[in-house]
TrEMBL record:
One of its GO terms (molecular function) is ATP binding. Keywords: ATP-binding, Nucleotide-binding. Gene3D superfamilies: 3.30.300.20. This is ABC transporter ATP-binding protein. It comes from the Bacteria. InterPro entries: KH_dom-like_a/b, OsmC/Ohr_fam, OsmC/Ohrsf. Residues 1-21 are annotated as: Disordered. It comes from Xaviernesmea rhizosphaerae.
Length: 144
């Protein structure tokens, strides 16, 4: 595989390791590490924060890609995407609604900002498309 091909096949995935006490440590397929925090006053990410972070980062990168597709990269200054969620009051535990606030700055009119945001959210962002879809799960229980 050439260097160019490797660029498009970045390893993905993550592992969480948790002992009898404490919090999980997450390791990505590329070796990135993140310690999970769940205390109300603790700075850091909990699992829901990671879900929201994934969606916000994906939408921001997808909005930039949409601007590039439209030939507007030079007119775009910055993209900020804030994501919050609403948890269901009943079981099973889940997020039932995502609130997304996308702020695009630069020399762009309102209609162009709308076009960029919708292209990002409806087509380009793998995370938003997955959350809206019907992904299946394969669970394997390893012995030992």
């Amino acid at each position: 595989m050439s260097q160019t091909d490797r660029r498009f096949h970045r390893p993905t995935g993550a592992s969480a390791t948790l002992g009898r006490t404490g919090f999980p440590t997450i390791v990505s397929a590329t070796g990135g590490r993140l310690d999970i925090k769940t205390g109300v006053e603790e700075a850091g990410f909990n699992p829901l924060d990671l879900l929201y972070a994934s969606l916000s980062a994906c939408l921001a990168m997808s909005a930039r890609s949409a601007a590039v597709e439209l030939g507007l990269r030079d007119r775009l200054s910055e993209i900020t995407v804030d994501v919050r969620g609403v948890k269901a009051p009943d079981d099973p535990a889940r997020v039932t609604h995502f609130e997304i606030d996308m702020h695009l700055t630069g020399d762009l009119d309102a209609q162009t900002k709308q076009a960029i945001a919708h292209r990002a959210e409806e087509s380009l962002c793998t995370v938003s498309n997955t959350l809206k879809g019907t992904a299946s799960f394969g669970l394997t229980i390893r012995e030992g």
